[in-house]
Design a protein that fits this description.
The chain is an alpha/beta fold. The protein folds into two domains: 4-172, P-loop containing nucleotide triphosphate hydrolases (Rossmann fold); 188-304, Nucleic acid-binding proteins (OB fold (Dihydrolipoamide Acetyltransferase, E2P), Beta Barrel), CATH 2.40.50.140. The chain is built from eight helices and 15 strands. The strands form two sheets. It has an eight-stranded mixed sheet with strand order 3-2-4-1-5-6-7-8, with helices on both faces.
């Protein structure tokens, strides 16, 4: 079959997904040139208008064969999936037909209930935010948009954010996100609470760190494959919950690396060079230590984005 554009609408119950789909399906610019099928993976209080809708009650019903069957039934050339917020996005990606091409992933949150979901269903919130292209917070009349902004930016720097009041008034998020450390300083000092942000920014924008000197607290990991005089230094980072904690280290050349053992905490000051290293299997940040000294374990040994 020909490639089919798929628009993914995600979020939890009563977040505004169905209303958005009804409005979208009422727009001739979206529907006139295509036959659109809506695949709904949950039923809320609001009902769909009179257009082609197929309901999916269980994730097991999403398979290439079943989705192709539904698409052919309606001769659809465009698909909208209203996705169940309790299902992982990866389940849809792995089960969808190969010719389905995700055109946009739009995520809705009710600002009045967001905090509860974020605290009690953190892994599902993280899953949705990390995969979203556009995030819409509705009912923001009494919400602290800065806190909503921080919750998103701790997980995604690329998603666009829109705030919508109950009156329908909308505003695009234009809050600047300065890093909590000075990348132009002679020595870039990373506080304990900021290692996760530093590691992510370094991973996403390595060229801007080439030749820079950085100072941070880290835990040592020794690996014989690195050879003499080289060790890993880094922190464990948690994105959403304990299950996803991972050690996120950097290669560090230090002639006296035998002074330390795995699990030792150290203060590292080092110069960064972006170079190919076998530990990365590609180009990556290779540190040449200027000084390494013994350190105390921080109060929160696991670094987070929030």
């Amino acid at each position: 079959m020909l490639d089919t554009p798929v628009y993914l609408v995600t979020g939890f119950l009563e977040a505004g997904k169905t209303k958005f789909i009804n409005d979208t399906m009422g727009d001739p610019k979206f529907t006139d040139a295509d036959k659109v099928l809506v695949i709904a993976c949950e039923e809320g209080e609001e009902e769909f208008d009179d257009f082609a809708v197929e309901y999916i009650d269980d994730i097991s019903e999403i398979s290439p064969e079943n989705m192709i069957r539904l698409q052919k039934r309606h001769d659809a050339t465009k698909i909208i999936v209203e996705y169940n917020g309790m299902w992982q996005i990866s389940d849809l990606y792995s089960r969808a037909p190969e010719h389905w091409i995700i055109g946009q992933n739009i995520l809705f949150f009710n600002a009045e209930t967001f905090d509860g979901y974020n605290k009690n269903m953190r892994s599902l919130v993280v899953d949705k935010i990390q995969n979203a292209d556009l995030i819409i917070f509705n009912r923001v009349d009494d919400a602290d948009c800065m806190e909503l902004h921080k919750a998103v930016r701790g997980l995604s720097r690329s998603a666009d954010i829109i705030y919508e009041k109950s009156t329908g008034e909308t505003a695009y998020d234009d809050i600047e996100d300065p890093l909590p450390f000075d990348k132009e300083a002679d020595v870039i000092t990373i506080e304990d609470r900021d290692y996760a942000l530093f590691y992510r920014d370094l991973s996403e924008d390595m060229a801007s760190y080439d030749g820079k000197t950085v100072s941070f607290k880290a835990v040592v990991a020794k690996d014989r494959s690195l050879g003499c005089g080289t060790m890993f230094v880094g922190r464990h980072i948690m994105v959403c919950c304990a299950d996803d904690i991972q050690y996120s280290p950097l290669v560090c050349k230090w002639g006296r690396s035998d002074d330390y053992e795995s699990y030792d905490w150290v203060n590292v000051t080092a110069k960064i060079k972006i170079a190919h290293h076998k530990a990365y299997q590609t180009a990556g940040p290779v540190l040449t230590a200027i000084s390494v000294t013994k350190a105390y374990q921080p109060t929160d040994p696991v670094a987070t984005f929030y």
